[in-house]
UniProtKB/TrEMBL annotation:
Its main location: membrane. PANTHER family: SECRETORY CARRIER-ASSOCIATED MEMBRANE PROTEIN 5, SECRETORY CARRIER-ASSOCIATED MEMBRANE PROTEIN SCAMP. It comes from Lotus japonicus (Lotus corniculatus var. japonicus). GO terms for cellular component: plasma membrane; recycling endosome membrane; trans-Golgi network membrane; transport vesicle membrane. It is a multi-pass membrane protein. The chain crosses the membrane at residues 7-28, 48-71. Probably involved in membrane trafficking. It is found in: Cell membrane; Cytoplasmic vesicle, Secretory vesicle membrane. One of its GO terms (biological process) is protein transport. Keywords: Cell membrane, Cytoplasmic vesicle, Membrane, Transmembrane, Transmembrane helix, Transport. It comes from the Eukaryota. This is Secretory carrier-associated membrane protein.
């Protein structure tokens, strides 16, 4: 069950990182996230701030790549440790108990 919580919250974290890397103006009306769209919008008026936004965008992209690597490593550990088969058996037992 701990792996399930980890995957759920880590995928939410990766989703936020993707949102922050893009930073659409629909979600955040101001310039609160350092995404690519905010960087393009700001670079015309304030060059230094635009460059900092591009650096933030690059760091969020790096976090996404590292996060994908972490998910792959934990997934391989999860499959190799036998926890996946154990969770399937536990889910089947839970379903059977709920049916009875």
């Amino acid at each position: 069950m701990k792996f399930g919580w980890f995957f759920l919250f880590y995928l939410l974290h990766l989703g936020f990182c993707i949102l922050a890397a893009v930073a659409p103006p629909i979600v955040f009306k101001g310039k609160s996230l350092t995404g690519i769209l905010s960087a393009i919008d700001v670079i015309d008026d304030h060059t230094v701030i635009g460059i900092l936004y591009f650096i933030g965008f690059g760091l969020f992209c790096l976090e996404i790549l590292v996060g994908i690597w972490v998910i792959q490593q934990v997934g391989m550990y999860f499959r190799g440790s036998g926890k996946a088969a154990e969770m399937k058996r536990e889910a089947a037992r839970g379903t059977l108990r709920a049916a009875i």
